[in-house]
Amino acid sequence: MAEAAELTSFRSDVQAWLKDHFPASLAGKSVAMEGGDALGPDEVRWRDALAEAGYGAPTWPKEYGGAGLTQRHARILDEEMAAVGASNPIPMITGMGITMVGPTVLEYGTDEQKQRHLPGIASGQIRWCLGLSEPNAGSDLASLKTKAESDGDNFVLNGQKIWTSGADISQWCGALVRTDTQAAKRDGISFVLLPMDQPGVETRPIKLISGASPFCETYFTDAVAEKRDLLGPLNEGWSVVKRLLQHERQSQTGARPGGDAEKVPGITELAKDYVGTADDGRLADADLRTRITEHLIDSKAHNLTVARIAAEAKGNPEVSAAASIMKNSATKVAQGKSELTLEVMGAKGLGWEGDFFTEYELRVVRDWLFGKAISIYGGSYEVQNNIISKNILGLPETTQKG
Amino acid sequence: MALLNEEQAMLKDQAVAWVSEQAPVAQFRAVRDQGEGRCYAEPTWQAMVDMGWTGILVPEAYGGSDLGYLTFGLVLEQLGRELTASPLFASALVGTTAVLLGGNEAQKQQWLPKVVEGSEVLTLAVDDGPRHAPDTIRLAAEPTADGYTLTGAKTFVPEGMAATAFVVAARRTDTGATVLLLVPADAGGLSRSRLHTFDGRGYANLSFEGVAVPAVAELAEGGETLLTDVLDRARAGLGAEMLGTASKAFDLTLEYLKTREQFGRIIGSFQALGHRAAELYTQLELSRSCAEAALQAVDAGKANIAPMASLSQAKVGAFLHWMSNQLIQIHGGIGMTDDFDAGFYLKRARALEALYGNPAFHRDRYARLLGY
């Protein structure tokens, strides 16, 4: 009971804090930082208030810029922020910082590395990207070739990375590099952290089928990473990155574009508008209705499973192998919704630009195209199935010899 | 698995141990081979009664333990895993739910303690034809001075050969309203005949030729939606049994993938099969969430019991259908033999899917409930 009272009192503290610090002008708005747009004055004020309280990364230890909250307290913070229409922009502002780099540094970093890197993330000052994939190392990440050679206190990096999200607007990068060319594929890899603002780093945005350029090619030409920024032991970067990717998957398991059948009018209302209804008020196209229903059922099943896994972990969710299941399930739901939406809109779902199409119709098209990446990034749909069959079900390796 | 309280965890452990030791699928095989009319082993049923499973939903005042639907689901899941045959679901969940929701005090006093002690076995007689269609009940209930006269038929009544009384869905000839009536199996003018279905369970067809039912036998407390409310709780419970059947089918398949060798390799090392196993497992986990959420919605008395029950039936039903086919396919030739259990699971899967609406029925109903 003392615990319940403490939680209640924490809730009222949060309410009071939000009243004092959350700018009303931001209610209901999420900060769009995909393009690296500059923050407005209220957004800066809000970011700094969050940082000051440690609420940018509420579950991280206080000494590294977090608030040291338990998952239960963090959930209360989330709930109260949602109640006033506030969202935490720091995960967006920091790129891969909050969701992936931070948790991995917390686990593998030395105390000095934690002091050096975490506060900048938690306060929303430093944006991070990740140099993992290479032109010939996508799903088969371990075949990467970017080399890091020892030179006194530094590593000197040479090679090319690809699909580096936000490389052009990031200050720091976590890169997977080969430090032993003689060792077996997965044994000669290390994970280093390096600043992006240096002569040896060049980034080129990649234009995607959706027209956007969220990813870059990143070239390292004698780029420098300090040895004190080696994360985890030398040549053991593969285990670091496996963990990092689990954090990534975990961050990709939420149901994307609103699928909760009971809350969102979404696809059913849209279908009625574009396709029309029969005399009984039901969607006129029975085949479409069935497929929409299958989509909504999968969406609901996904959300229930996310909630169940959280409940089973008693509010302290460990990053688990189940994340592979949830990533694939989230992918199906998100891509399925995009395909249905496009189909429902007919020719209005084919627009690229121009007045004939509404802003919403154009956005659906871009989302549909960008959504094709979901089953590729963070370990493709097929790679997730390899992980499920091997790590969860205990079946033999299917992709490696020996 | 949902978070369980201490009582639920104990009951689950008891069910896991008892079912696997005392009522495994080998016992079902023996009963099937015997071909006896009730299609379950009497000592198995008696043991369930002795363990108190017949009282899981019943308040203590009527001799039960009032542990709720999620708890009942834990037991049904285990029974589903081993295809354990008994009237437990029909009587202690479906029939009992009808009395709990629709019965007055006298009816509860009359029926519930006897269901708990196993001396009465209830079952719901809902469908008049071969497809589940609770909106178009045809069995005629003609009002009389003291109740009704029933004329017509019911089909595919689960445990219809073992039941001592039926909860009969009938249509009033005057108002057209659906009524639920408690009719003893030995009522004059009522006859039953066994249906030989491929899942080897004790279904019956019922024939009503002017069966007189007194007014006191009408379950009138549940209002116009009583039949739907009973069915949705039945569907939530059935989802747990189906989940159990599917999860055992998955386990058997996974075990085979790890042990069977062809072309000099364990067949689970073929990526086609590894990925299929991964897809099956993903659907199993999603199905479990739906099955448990439906039972939890019933326990919490939520307003969304109907869509959640249909969600559970649609999702778990579709998975069980696919899983039972894959059980045979991945086992290859051995899966086609009667000596191996796979066929039991396939056959049972289809019967469970059909009972209270197949996945197509529930997808359509889900859409209707959500207004499109």
Structural class computed from helices and strand pairing of chain A: alpha+beta
Chain pair with largest interface: A-B, 45 and 42 residues
Shape of chain A: globular
Taking all residues together, what is the mean pLDDT of chain B? Answer: 96
- Work out the number of β strands of chain A: 8
User: Can you summarize the main beta sheet of chain A?
Assistant: 4 strands, mixed
Identify the overall geometry of chain B. Answer: globular
Write the element-wise H/E pattern of chain B from the N-terminal end onward: HHHHHHEEEEEEEEHEEHHHH
How much is the radius of gyration of chain A in Å? 23 Å
Oligomer: heterodimer
Instruction: Kindly state the percentage of residues in helix of chain A.
Output: 40-55%
By DSSP (H or I, 4+ residues per run), the number of helices of chain A equals 12
Query: What integer value in Å does the Rg of chain B equal?
Result: 21 Å
Helix content of chain B: 40-55%
Strand fraction of chain B equals 15-25%
How would you describe this structure to a colleague?
The complex is a heterodimer of chains A (402) and B (372). Chain A has helices at 2-21, 41-53, 71-83, 90-93, 97-108, 111-122, 237-251, 266-275, 286-312, 322-345, 359-371, 381-392; strands at residues 128-131, 147-151, 154-165, 172-178, 189-195, 201-206, 215-226, 230-231. Chain A has 402 residues and is α+β, with helices and mostly antiparallel strands. Chain A has a four-stranded mixed beta sheet. In chain A, a hairpin with an 8-residue loop joins strand 6 (201-206) and strand 7 (215-226). Residues 255-265 of chain A have low confidence and may be disordered. By secondary structure, chain B is an alpha+beta fold. Chain B is 52% helix and 15% strand. Chain B contains eleven helices and ten strands. Chain B has helices at residues 6-22, 25-34, 42-50, 69-82, 88-102, 105-117, 226-259, 271-299, 305-331, 342-355, 359-369, and strands at 122-125, 140-144, 147-157, 165-172, 178-184, 190-194, 204-213, 218-219, 261-262, 265-266. In chain B, strand 4 and strand 5 form a beta hairpin. The model of chain B has no long low-confidence stretch (mean pLDDT 96). Chain A binds chain B through residues 261-262, 268, 271-272, 281-283, 289-290, 292-294, 296-298, 300-302, 304-305, 307-308, 311-312, 314, 322, 325, 328-329, 382, 384-386, 388-390, 392-399, and chain B through 1-3, 254, 257-258, 265-266, 268-271, 273-275, 277-279, 281-282, 285-290, 292-293, 304, 307, 311, 314-315, 360, 363-364, 366-368, 370-372.
